[in-house]
Amino acid sequence: MDKLERQINKLLDTEENGSLPNCALVFDCDGTLLDTMPIYYESWSRTCKELDLEFPMERFYSMAGKTVVDIFQILLDEVTATKETSQCRALMLGVTAKDCENIKREHHRVIEEEEGMYAPSIDIVVDIARKYEGKLRLAVASSGWRDHVLKGLERNNILHLFDHVVTADEEEVANPKPAPDIFLEASRRLNVCPERCIGLEDADLGMVSINRANYLYAADVRKFHAYPRNVERRKVASKTL
Prior knowledge:
By secondary structure, the protein is an alpha/beta fold.
């Protein structure tokens, strides 16, 4: 957090007085602004169970930043290479990665709309956006589905904080993370050169994407003391003492 603040102050110190500095913060959404990962894994788990695909939680987190279709394509390629058709429901049904994505969408809809499970905001990160609203240009750059990203931000009453929201399913984003496309598109829409942008991410692939976009600084929110997974680990550790 301290290093992030120093980098932000470095940007602001080089700005002349004006209505809005020509520098920006660009936030990932899932796992950065919103604590969607536990709910997302639940929809992944249900989908993979239905299709006889293996996707343990550790691998889910390691692939954070990839698009849903790309992940399903990897899983389908693996089972095609290692299993007989009769051993895997996905192979028996002949589903494509896009079919799998649609099945996951339905599971996610049930979780949210029928079971009432919603992703809360990650306050330690959202507080940064609130602090610099009106002082820096702000955007979201997410690998998630656009409708879900917008709905999640709006549900937590933080959509208004951001000047632009860029998602990987838009035609302007040719290549998903770890390619730099989505962060470059965010800086383009903000009309701020990448070297005057700071990106915030919770995934290794996203960090690579920020650096490839030549942003001034890539902030790993997983290192924040109050990040949800860190709080959870401390609680577990305290119970074992």
